[in-house]
């Protein structure tokens, strides 16, 4: 596994969580389709496949943003600013529209909360910049959806009392997951 687990819905045990993630990573690594992934989940037959599709697409987006965060860290001395770039259309939500075009330094704590992915189906991305002015934020911003209220690209510890879609693979988080699924 790459270093993160995804907490897909309808999982009822720690072993199921591992098996679903193994199926996801197999499909991802070998360029298999969503349909391939879905058919590998024998227990999903009577559950909401639309939700699974959104979770699958979000998981792929998360992996892409984790790679982007790593690239940003390598280039932050020459490109020290990040600009939030939301897709604004009829499907945009209040969070996306309020964050669109905000510019902050790469190391600003703003990105600990608002670095994409911020919700299921998030299509936002980040542009790395050099000669721009940081944005002053004078009004409170909406918070990301539960499960996304942190920078998913940075390791963090989960709590048994909170939902997280992206779970960094470390000993403490695995212990928490095993406790949760007992």
Describe the structure.
The protein has about 180 residues and is α+β, with helices and mostly antiparallel strands. It is built from six helices and five strands. Strands 3-2-4 form a three-stranded antiparallel sheet, with no helix packed on it. A two-stranded antiparallel sheet has the order 1-5. The protein is globular and about 50 Å long.
Brief account:
By secondary structure, this protein is of the alpha+beta class.
Rg: 17 Å
N-end to C-end Cα span: 23 Å
Query: Which structural category do the helix and sheet elements fall into?
Result: alpha+beta
Can you give the mean pLDDT?
90
* SSE order, one letter for each helix or strand: EHHHEHEHEEH
The global form is: globular
Percent range for helical residues?
A: 25-40%
Strand residue content: 5-15%
Structural domain count: 1
- How many β strands by DSSP? 5
Strand order of the largest sheet: 3-2-4
Largest sheet, strands/sense/barrel: 3 strands, antiparallel
How many H/I helical runs?
6
Enumerate the spans where pLDDT stays under 50 for 5 or more consecutive residues: none
């Amino acid at each position: 596994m790459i270093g993160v687990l995804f907490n897909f819905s309808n999982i009822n045990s720690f072993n199921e969580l591992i098996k679903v993630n193994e199926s996801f990573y197999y499909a991802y690594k070998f360029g298999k389709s969503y349909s391939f992934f879905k058919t590998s989940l024998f227990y999903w037959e009577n559950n909401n496949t639309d939700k699974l599709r959104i979770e699958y697409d979000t998981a792929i987006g998360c992996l892409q943003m984790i790679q982007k965060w790593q690239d940003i860290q390598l280039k932050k001395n020459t490109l020290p600013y990040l600009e939030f770039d939301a897709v604004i259309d009829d499907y945009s939500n209040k969070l996306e529209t309020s964050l669109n075009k905000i510019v902050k330094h790469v190391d600003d704590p703003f990105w600990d909360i608002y670095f994409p992915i911020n919700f299921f189906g998030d299509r936002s991305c980040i542009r790395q910049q050099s000669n721009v002015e940081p944005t002053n934020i004078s009004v409170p911003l909406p918070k990301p959806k539960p499960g996304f209220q942190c920078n998913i690209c940075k390791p963090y510890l989960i709590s048994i009392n909170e939902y997280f879609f992206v779970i960094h693979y470390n000993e403490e988080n695995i212990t928490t997951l095993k406790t949760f699924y007992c």
